[in-house]
Design the sequence.
Protein backbone atom coordinates (compact mmCIF):
# COMPACT_ATOMS: atom_id res chain seq x y z
CA UNK A 1 0.00 0.00 0.00
CA UNK A 2 1.45 3.38 -0.97
CA UNK A 3 2.11 6.11 1.60
CA UNK A 4 -0.68 8.40 0.29
CA UNK A 5 -3.14 5.50 0.50
CA UNK A 6 -2.03 4.69 4.06
CA UNK A 7 -2.39 8.34 5.05
CA UNK A 8 -5.86 8.46 3.50
CA UNK A 9 -7.01 5.29 5.31
CA UNK A 10 -5.52 6.54 8.60
CA UNK A 11 -7.39 9.84 8.27
CA UNK A 12 -10.56 7.91 7.41
CA UNK A 13 -10.22 5.75 10.54
CA UNK A 14 -9.46 8.80 12.70
CA UNK A 15 -12.54 10.61 11.38
CA UNK A 16 -14.85 7.60 11.59
CA UNK A 17 -13.88 6.64 15.14
CA UNK A 18 -13.07 10.10 16.58
CA UNK A 19 -16.24 10.40 18.67
CA UNK A 20 -16.29 6.81 19.94
CA UNK A 21 -15.53 6.00 23.56
CA UNK A 22 -16.84 2.41 23.45
CA UNK A 23 -15.78 -0.46 21.20
CA UNK A 24 -15.00 -4.18 21.19
CA UNK A 25 -12.28 -5.95 19.24
CA UNK A 26 -12.93 -9.40 17.80
CA UNK A 27 -11.26 -11.73 15.36
CA UNK A 28 -13.34 -13.38 12.65
CA UNK A 29 -10.50 -15.29 11.03
CA UNK A 30 -12.17 -18.72 11.25
CA UNK A 31 -15.41 -17.66 9.55
CA UNK A 32 -16.06 -18.18 5.85
CA UNK A 33 -17.54 -15.36 3.76
CA UNK A 34 -21.14 -16.59 4.05
CA UNK A 35 -20.95 -16.88 7.85
CA UNK A 36 -19.30 -13.46 8.08
CA UNK A 37 -22.12 -11.91 6.05
CA UNK A 38 -24.74 -13.63 8.23
CA UNK A 39 -22.93 -12.39 11.33
CA UNK A 40 -22.84 -8.84 9.98
CA UNK A 41 -26.56 -9.06 9.16
CA UNK A 42 -27.44 -10.22 12.67
CA UNK A 43 -25.33 -7.42 14.15
CA UNK A 44 -26.84 -4.86 11.76
CA UNK A 45 -30.36 -5.85 12.86
CA UNK A 46 -29.35 -4.71 16.36
CA UNK A 47 -27.75 -1.50 15.01
CA UNK A 48 -24.24 -2.82 15.62
CA UNK A 49 -21.47 -2.54 13.02
CA UNK A 50 -18.47 -4.78 12.44
CA UNK A 51 -15.54 -3.07 10.69
CA UNK A 52 -12.43 -5.00 9.68
CA UNK A 53 -9.45 -2.68 10.14
CA UNK A 54 -5.81 -2.71 9.13
CA UNK A 55 -4.08 -2.95 12.50
CA UNK A 56 -1.08 -0.70 11.89
CA UNK A 57 -3.22 2.06 10.41
CA UNK A 58 -5.86 1.75 13.14
CA UNK A 59 -3.15 1.97 15.81
CA UNK A 60 -1.86 5.14 14.20
CA UNK A 61 -5.39 6.60 13.90
CA UNK A 62 -6.25 5.80 17.53
CA UNK A 63 -3.15 7.41 19.10
CA UNK A 64 -4.85 10.68 20.07
CA UNK A 65 -8.35 9.32 20.67
CA UNK A 66 -10.18 7.62 23.50
CA UNK A 67 -9.68 4.30 21.66
CA UNK A 68 -5.88 4.47 22.09
CA UNK A 69 -5.82 1.59 24.64
CA UNK A 70 -7.21 -0.74 21.95
CA UNK A 71 -3.91 -0.43 20.05
CA UNK A 72 -2.41 -3.14 22.27
CA UNK A 73 -5.14 -5.61 21.27
CA UNK A 74 -4.89 -5.06 17.53
CA UNK A 75 -2.82 -8.14 16.71
CA UNK A 76 -3.66 -10.49 13.87
CA UNK A 77 -6.84 -10.13 11.81
CA UNK A 78 -9.12 -7.86 13.84
CA UNK A 79 -12.48 -6.23 13.52
CA UNK A 80 -13.87 -3.33 15.51
CA UNK A 81 -17.45 -3.77 16.74
CA UNK A 82 -19.33 -0.56 17.56
CA UNK A 83 -22.89 0.72 17.88
CA UNK A 84 -25.94 -0.55 19.70
CA UNK A 85 -27.58 1.04 22.73
CA UNK A 86 -24.44 0.60 24.84
CA UNK A 87 -21.18 -1.32 24.80
CA UNK A 88 -22.73 -3.71 27.34
CA UNK A 89 -25.46 -4.60 24.83
CA UNK A 90 -22.79 -5.04 22.13
CA UNK A 91 -20.81 -7.39 24.39
CA UNK A 92 -23.93 -9.39 25.31
CA UNK A 93 -24.79 -9.74 21.62
CA UNK A 94 -21.25 -10.87 20.78
CA UNK A 95 -21.23 -13.49 23.55
CA UNK A 96 -24.63 -14.74 22.34
CA UNK A 97 -23.40 -14.90 18.72
CA UNK A 98 -20.21 -16.73 19.78
CA UNK A 99 -22.43 -19.73 20.56
CA UNK A 100 -23.72 -19.68 16.98
CA UNK A 101 -20.34 -18.81 15.41
CA UNK A 102 -17.69 -20.48 17.58
CA UNK A 103 -14.85 -19.33 15.30
CA UNK A 104 -15.24 -15.74 16.55
CA UNK A 105 -12.50 -14.80 18.99
CA UNK A 106 -13.72 -12.23 21.50
CA UNK A 107 -10.75 -10.09 22.48
CA UNK A 108 -11.15 -6.93 24.54
CA UNK A 109 -13.46 -3.97 24.87
CA UNK A 110 -13.16 -0.39 26.00
CA UNK A 111 -15.82 1.22 28.19
CA UNK A 112 -16.25 5.01 28.13
CA UNK A 113 -12.64 5.60 27.05
CA UNK A 114 -11.28 3.97 30.22
CA UNK A 115 -7.59 3.07 29.75
CA UNK A 116 -8.19 -0.37 31.33
CA UNK A 117 -9.43 -2.83 28.73
CA UNK A 118 -12.02 -5.43 29.72
CA UNK A 119 -12.69 -8.90 28.37
CA UNK A 120 -15.80 -8.96 26.20
CA UNK A 121 -17.24 -11.77 28.38
CA UNK A 122 -16.76 -9.60 31.48
CA UNK A 123 -18.41 -6.64 29.77
CA UNK A 124 -21.39 -8.82 28.89
CA UNK A 125 -21.94 -9.66 32.56
CA UNK A 126 -22.25 -6.00 33.57
CA UNK A 127 -25.62 -4.34 33.92
CA UNK A 128 -26.68 -2.04 31.12
CA UNK A 129 -27.39 1.64 31.66
CA UNK A 130 -31.15 1.02 31.57
CA UNK A 131 -30.88 -1.70 34.23
CA UNK A 132 -28.81 0.57 36.47
CA UNK A 133 -31.25 3.46 36.08
CA UNK A 134 -34.16 1.17 36.98
CA UNK A 135 -32.27 -0.02 40.07
CA UNK A 136 -31.53 3.56 41.15
CA UNK A 137 -35.18 4.55 40.67
CA UNK A 138 -36.27 1.56 42.74
CA UNK A 139 -33.82 2.45 45.52
CA UNK A 140 -34.98 6.07 45.53
CA UNK A 141 -38.65 5.07 45.70
CA UNK A 142 -38.11 2.30 48.25
CA UNK A 143 -38.01 4.43 51.47
CA UNK A 144 -41.18 6.27 50.43
CA UNK A 145 -42.91 3.00 49.68
CA UNK A 146 -41.91 1.59 53.07
CA UNK A 147 -43.02 4.78 54.84
CA UNK A 148 -46.40 4.66 53.09
CA UNK A 149 -46.74 1.02 54.14
CA UNK A 150 -45.94 1.89 57.77
CA UNK A 151 -48.39 4.77 57.80
CA UNK A 152 -51.13 2.81 56.05
CA UNK A 153 -50.54 -0.42 58.00
CA UNK A 154 -51.82 0.58 61.48
CA UNK A 155 -54.66 2.59 59.95
CA UNK A 156 -55.73 -0.43 57.94
CA UNK A 157 -55.66 -2.65 61.01
CA UNK A 158 -57.61 -0.05 62.99
CA UNK A 159 -60.20 0.20 60.20
CA UNK A 160 -60.49 -3.60 60.24
CA UNK A 161 -61.17 -3.54 63.99
CA UNK A 162 -63.85 -0.83 63.59
CA UNK A 163 -65.48 -2.85 60.83
CA UNK A 164 -65.51 -5.98 63.01
CA UNK A 165 -67.11 -4.02 65.89
CA UNK A 166 -69.70 -2.53 63.51
CA UNK A 167 -70.49 -5.99 62.11
CA UNK A 168 -70.96 -7.36 65.66
CA UNK A 169 -73.33 -4.52 66.53
CA UNK A 170 -75.35 -5.07 63.36
CA UNK A 171 -75.71 -8.75 64.09
CA UNK A 172 -76.88 -7.93 67.61
CA UNK A 173 -74.09 -9.38 69.66
Sequence:
Amino acid sequence: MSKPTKDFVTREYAGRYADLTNACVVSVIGLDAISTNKLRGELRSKKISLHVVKNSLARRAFTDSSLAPLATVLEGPCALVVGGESIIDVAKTLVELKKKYPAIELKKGILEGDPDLLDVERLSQMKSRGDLLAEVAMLIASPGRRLAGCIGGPGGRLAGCFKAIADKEESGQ
